[in-house]
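thoughts on these tokens:
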Amino acid sequence: MDLTLLGGLQSRAGKVGAILERTGADVSALGVEAARAVILNSAPIPVQISLFNKCQKVLGDGDVREILAALPEPFSEIKTGYHSRGSTKQTSTLNL
């Protein structure tokens, strides 16, 4: 099977992803679209994360951000740079 075609075959990409993860196969032959399809259409989440980690060398920074955004929370909340959810300082420490 030509792995470059997985980008357009979502159900097949999910099945191939499970096989790639289970067997520990080399994923360096996957293109960006095939890697994205394999990661996003596989299940359960631990399989998606394992495939994501294995495919990182194939993906550019923008691809990584897009895939993270498409994954379920908390992964979709990962952002670049420093991010805070507000001040965590207590008022008692501010008076010191």
In short: Helices lie at 10-23, 32-41, 45-55, 61-70, 91-94. The radius of gyration is 18 Å. The chain has a mean pLDDT of 85. The chain has five helices and no strands.
